[in-house]
Amino acid sequence: MSADLKLLRLTLMRELETINQYQDFAAAAEDPAVRELMEHLMFEEKEHVAELTEMLKRYDADQLKHFHGEHAARFGGSGAGESPAAAPDPEPPAAPGAPEAALSAGVRGAGALTVGSLLGQPQP
Amino acid sequence: MEKSFLNREESPLSDQDWQHIDETVVNVAKRMLVGRRFLHVFGPMGVGIQDVDYDVFSGTGPAQLAVFGETETSVVRADKRVHENIPLIYKDFMIYWRDIETSRQMGMPLDVSAAAAASSFVAQREDHMIFNGDAECGYEGLANASGRIGMTARDWSQPGNGFQDVVDGTARLLSAGFYGPYAVIVNPKSYAQFHRVYANSGVLEINHIREIASSGVFQTPALGDVPGLVVSCGIQNFDVAIGQDLVTAYLGPENMNHPFRVFESLVLRIKRPGAICTFEAGRPAAKRAS
């Protein structure tokens, strides 16, 4: 394994951890301005994850193969001969003790995009 | 595959069409909604949740100060527990089969303007319920909640009067134990009137108000003739409990065409009505909060 590939994987790991941390910080923030900043930082980390993932595909041919293989296709990814959007989003397994997740599970393919809270957002 | 209550599997739309509709519906609502910009959201609890309980607090005394801690103190207790049904807010729209076929044959994106219009109607209705409630269904809103503080508004057509009322309103809330942060919500006419230079300060009146209202100054037509109100924000005072957040369902074919429904289920929970101060034209009808 090349040193660069190892660096990419380590950095990707850190970025994913940081997204979780910023998400927790945003949820804990009382001041809407602080919450907005945390959310902004979280979105930036997500951009980094996308960049790192693309770079990872270049450096790890075996990993790239899996992005387009049957395992990815099972979760809506671009499997062989299948467009990315052709496969329906699978229902995420409900975590034990998470009734809200179980209750929302009926909204298949429509759970990700929602209005949610607009707290602290200025009026356009 | 388990069938969803949204019935999307039965629709003739592709995943890309649905994504286009979802993005449009959510973005339109996000641009329009006002209540959610200063009220916390509780949930979504799930589409199957049809009611929610919450406690209403009022009239608790100050904390006790004593060396030995044996002096009696009043306990923070709920005055009452409210059991609220969560209503649906919805608007239907139609996509015609010929338009779908045109989109397919010409490789053009599907026109989802009707979905955008339906979303805007739902967003308007949500804010209307948040500010005015619904008398028929027995819901109170921020502008007509029993127990709120009511003030007679000065003549806001005169520069400075709106700012002075906001100062007085927040002072009333502060004296009643509601420390903010404050949000000011006014009707569009009042909002326009705030965009004048205040006295000789060289600063717009609305900017002076923003110094006090750190949670924001918003305008909404849902207030109608009520000039405005100021609220002390926080989940201890009120929030919006959501069962199902805004989403689009397929209703099934009708004369070859395809009706859809944009809907959500939510209710405003006013836990401490004393955290609201309304500025009212004429004599205030509200009871003062104890």
Helix content range of chain A: 55-70%
- What are the segments of chain B in which pLDDT stays under 50 over at least 5 consecutive residues? none
Radius of gyration of chain B, taken over Cα atoms and rounded to an integer in Å: 23 Å
Which two chains form the greatest contact, residue counts included?
A-B, 27 and 42 residues
Summarize the topology.
The complex is a heterodimer of chains A (124) and B (290).
Chain A: H1 3-28, H2 32-59, H3 61-67, H4 70-74, H5 99-104
Chain B: H1 15-32, E1 40-42, E2 51-57, E3 78-85, E4 88-95, H2 97-106, H3 113-132, E5 149-152, H4 161-175, E6 182-186, H5 188-193, H6 205-212, E7 216-219, E8 228-232, E9 238-250, E10 258-270, E11 276-280
Helix pairs in contact in B: 1-3, 4-6
Q: Which characteristics define this entry?
A:
A: mainly alpha; B: 290 residues; alpha/beta; 5-stranded mixed β-sheet; 4-stranded mixed β-sheet; 27% helix
Verbal overview:
- Chain A contains five helices and no strands.
- Chain A is mainly alpha-helical.
- The radius of gyration of chain A is 18 Å and the shape is elongated.
- Chain A starts with a helix and ends in a 20-residue tail after the last helix.
- A five-stranded mixed β-sheet of chain B has the order 5-11-8-6-7. A four-stranded mixed β-sheet of chain B has the order 1-9-10-4. Chain B has a two-stranded antiparallel ribbon with strand order 2-3.
- Chain B is built from six helices and eleven strands.
- With 290 residues, chain B is an alpha/beta fold.
- In chain B, strand 9 and strand 10 form a beta hairpin.
- The chains are: A mainly alpha (124), B alpha/beta (290).
- At the A-B interface, helix 5 of A face helix 1, strand 7 and strand 9 of B.
